[in-house]
Amino acid sequence: MDSQNYAQSLVSVIIPTHGGARNVERLVHIAKQVALATEVIIVCAGLPPHAADSEYVWGAKVVPASEQATASECRAIGAQHAQGNVLLFLEEGITLPLGSLKKYTAALLKGYDLVLSAGGRVLTTKGKLSSERCAYALLNHLLGQKQLGSASLEKAPFALNRKALEAIGQHHLHVPAAALVRAVQKALAITLVTSGSTGQAARKRSAANQPLAKKQALIFQEHGEAIQLLLQDKDVRGALPDGERHRILVQAPGLLHLRSVFYQESREKEGDEWGAKRKERPKRTRKRAQSRKKRSH
């Protein structure tokens, strides 16, 4: 098999981790079985730089990252080292069955470019939808992708092909919200996969056990920047409908122009001027008005 065909059949599995992580060996063992040709890349935050590119552990290539690196930054680094045509991104703290992981690569073989994990409803201890999930769902709504729910590139597992990686840009993966905006703008085919009990596993882990996790404030900031990126490509409403409002009429002269914003009538009906839409009086009201007028005479 020549190098080009090998790259097309190769699946690159990328696992962000840190020095004190557990369960990575088991995750690597499962990842190597995803496809016949699989490379596993461990991006380790806090690993000394001299250990890069030459160290292999459990048959996986180990790449260093900054000690302060987040999971998304580690994924972007791993994508730069990946050689496969399919990239599967995992999370160190969640181990899924092999069958669940193969769902992601299978969806890409069906013609999709980006495969996300179904968001589900990760609730807080008070039974409310978490603030992060609300941010994910809001961005998807503004993108016109309501069917994605609260799915996000912030959460692994997810997978993409080489076409999607080039369209988004490897370095843009470190800001998942902006990467998703670029994916939609490039008209990539996106679908969802239900990976299992990842939501329950996420609830059980505390922030102290997630050194690669982002702070909530940073997630909100990145989603705000992603929305700004979207508005630069769309109009001020992100291509969402404006109901029956006619905001341009606010600048029109006349006493009734503010009402005309909500009640617009055609020029044929009102002549050459804008006016308020007048509701017809009920027959009973008109008769009363006529009778009063007659009595006054």
UniProtKB/TrEMBL annotation:
Residues 278-297 have a biased composition (Basic residues). Residues 265-277 have a biased composition (Basic and acidic residues). Residues 265-297 are annotated as: Disordered. InterPro entries: Nucleotide-diphossugar_trans. This is Glycosyltransferase. It comes from Brevibacillus agri.
